[in-house]
């Protein structure tokens, strides 16, 4: 399949998912600068769909990123998260200002990283290629897609490390913690 077909398929799957559409609407209503929702939530929705699951695979959280270079404090993340919680309190939101990632990344992951220039650039650094995907719901209800690694791994159910920032050791740890094979047995794991 070509990337245009994958993009159309993704949009059809997302528009048909009322739960996720509510998440995108809440994010749009709160409207932090440069916001996008993505990573594991999109992977789960698509892989559940491709596995014909009737019940969604549980999520640890819903990742919303934004880009505010004017306030790099943890309180800014919390303010956005609180705003989202007021809108949809049943969702476990994880709001992260991508303009501030370079300030805490080394302490959390052992690797110093340069500052990012946008939310879109941040998506390109996410741990697996199948989760380097994010969406924004525009005011006209169109979906804006950010997929710097493409959609092939997502739709072909391939899990591989995004080598831009993730070491083999971190990838192995994530495989164990996330239990990908037990959740989605048709996924092919490429452990290079």
Commentary on this structure:
- The protein has nine helices and seven strands.
- It is globular and about 45 Å long.
- With 192 residues, it is of the alpha/beta class.
- Strand 4 and strand 5 (143-146) form a beta hairpin.
- The chain has a five-stranded mixed β-sheet. A two-stranded parallel ribbon has the order 6-7.
- Helix 2 (18-30) packs across helix 4.
- The protein has helices spanning 3-15, 18-30, 40-50, 74-87, 101-109, 119-123, 152-155, 168-178, 180-183, and strands spanning 36-38, 62-66, 93-97, 134-137, 143-146, 158-160, 188-190.
Summarize this, please?
The protein is α/β, with parallel strands linked by helices. The protein contains nine helices and seven strands.
Bin the helical content: 40-55%
Q: How many strand units?
A: 7
Residue stretches low in confidence (pLDDT < 50, at least 5 long) are none
Structural class, please?
A: alpha/beta
How many angstroms does the end-to-end distance come to? 24 Å
Silhouette = globular
Radius of gyration: 16 Å
Q: Helical stretch count?
A: 9
Secondary-structure element string: HHEHEHEHHEEHEHHE
How would the blueprint of this fold be written?
Elements: H1 3-15, H2 18-30, E1 36-38, H3 40-50, E2 62-66, H4 74-87, E3 93-97, H5 101-109, H6 119-123, E4 134-137, E5 143-146, H7 152-155, E6 158-160, H8 168-178, H9 180-183, E7 188-190
Parallel strand pairs: 2-3, 6-7
Antiparallel strand pairs: 1-2, 1-4, 4-5
Helix pairs in contact: 2-4
């Amino acid at each position: 399949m070509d990337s245009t077909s994958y993009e159309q398929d993704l949009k059809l799957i997302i528009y048909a998912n009322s739960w996720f559409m509510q998440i995108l609407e809440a994010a749009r209503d709160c409207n932090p600068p440069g916001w996008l929702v993505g990573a594991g939530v999109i992977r789960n929705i698509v892989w559940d769909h491709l596995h014909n699951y009737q019940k969604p695979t549980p999520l640890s959280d819903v990742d919303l990123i934004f880009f505010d270079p004017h306030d790099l404090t943890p309180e800014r993340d919390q303010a956005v998260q609180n705003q989202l919680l007021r809108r949809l309190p049943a969702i476990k939101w994880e709001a992260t200002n991508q303009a501030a990632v370079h300030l805490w990344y080394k302490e959390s992951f052992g690797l110093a990283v340069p500052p990012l220039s946008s939310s879109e650039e941040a998506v390109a650094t996410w741990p697996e290629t199948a989760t380097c995907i994010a969406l924004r719901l525009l005011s006209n209800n169109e979906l804006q897609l950010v997929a710097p690694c493409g959609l092939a791994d997502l739709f072909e159910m391939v899990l591989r490390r995004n080598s831009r920032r993730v070491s083999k050791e971190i990838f192995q740890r994530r495989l164990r913690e996330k239990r990908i094979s037990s959740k989605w047995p048709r996924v092919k794991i490429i452990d290079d």
